[in-house]
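Researcher: Re-running this chain for the archive, since the previous output was lost when a drive failed. Same request as before.
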Amino acid sequence: MSKRSLADLSTNNYNLKEPHFGLLFDIDGVLTRGRKLLPYTRDAFRKLVTTSGQFRVPTVFVTNAGNELRSSKAAKLSQILGIPVSPEQVIMSHSPLKMYTEFHKKHCLISGQGPIADIAKNLGFTKVTTIEQLCDAFPNLDMVDHKKRRGFHSPFRDYFLPIEAVVLFGEPVRWETCLQLIIDVLMTNGNPSSPIIRPPVSHLPILASNADLLWMAEAALP
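Model: Regenerated structure tokens:
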């Protein structure tokens, strides 16, 4: 190899042929541990981009997390890695739900934490009800939070449209409340105001984008 070739390779401005491969990086446990960046991660990514911040190789970040929008996850990655990451480079656990167009016009009950209504609408869902909104419409169904129980009839209940599908974006803050209400919705075929005569033979569809019950963060144990 000539001295000129070696000099070219030592700069960030040399031109490479278009790569015939790409890179997919998991985030949790690979790049970060909870909120902490793992050692040498930034150094490694500086070698993956040019001086102008362009990726030399097509790069995508994948995660089981489902509690935020792709745009906010990309912004966080940009900050901790010190390089620009676009939302198009991020695949969340709920990203594939964009392809489930047959559910986008159905009335869906959504569970999780974070801006789940915004996430659902960003994915294409047009009729969504959160667990919190369901609690407001049917306060006596929540057997966990006694403060939500009311003795009077909720006005929302009379106008509540039956649920047609259940979407789980990830772990909620309160599993007990979510499980109680989701089971009530399934047992009543989407209409919690009606009594249960018999359980439906085939219950409403459930889309679970992340079924993890165990994960690793900063704690010593998962």
